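Re-run with default settings, no changes from the original entry. Doing this only to confirm the output is reproducible before filing.
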Amino acid sequence: MSTRAGGVYDRLREDILSEELAEGAPLVELDLATRYGTSRTPVREALRRLEHDGLIERHDRSFTVRATSPEQVLEIYEIRIALEGIAARSAAEHRSTFHLARLRGAIEHMRATDPGDPRAMAAANLTFHQALWSAGRNATLVDLLGRLQGYITRYPATTLAEPGRWEQAIAEHTAMVDAIEARDEPTARRIAEEHMTTARAIRLRHALAGLGGDGTG
């Protein structure tokens, strides 16, 4: 992707995630080129990438901002629960001393994070999960989980802001890393799956509330 197309992608993605471009909003190449002060070619490239990310959807030759829904939450988490479990099992099999240090460091970063700052909590949590994915040494798995994380960014309210969830997540991460260090693959996988199953329940509750009003674990 060209530098110009990358800039358009970043700006358009931010406008979607901030809801400046609302769900269902039409995305017309000429209008977007005018909006971002560029030609249609980088806009076209950015739209293809955003479609790949799952943030927009195609209708014949046009695009719209993809709507969020409880059904989409279930679809995303059904896959993510399975993949996070595989990532934890793979990490237990393949982890190195470096990976363990990175995982422990990510947990310490979570402990030092202000539990009153949802953005910081979400960022610290993502850092841990990215370290987990990396520890499994499976590039395809890392790519798939990264794409799923992109889908989840459409649901801005973090599940970690739920009362007691932050402390619970840290405890679950710690138990998961203990299992990974012990090369206990079944336990690492089970904890990861249970961790994401809890996140799904909270995210689904947010999505259902959003039908009337509210919206990474």
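Residues 211-215 have pLDDT under 50 and may be disordered. Residues 70-210 form a domain with the Four Helix Bundle (Hemerythrin (Met), subunit A) fold (CATH 1.20.120.530).
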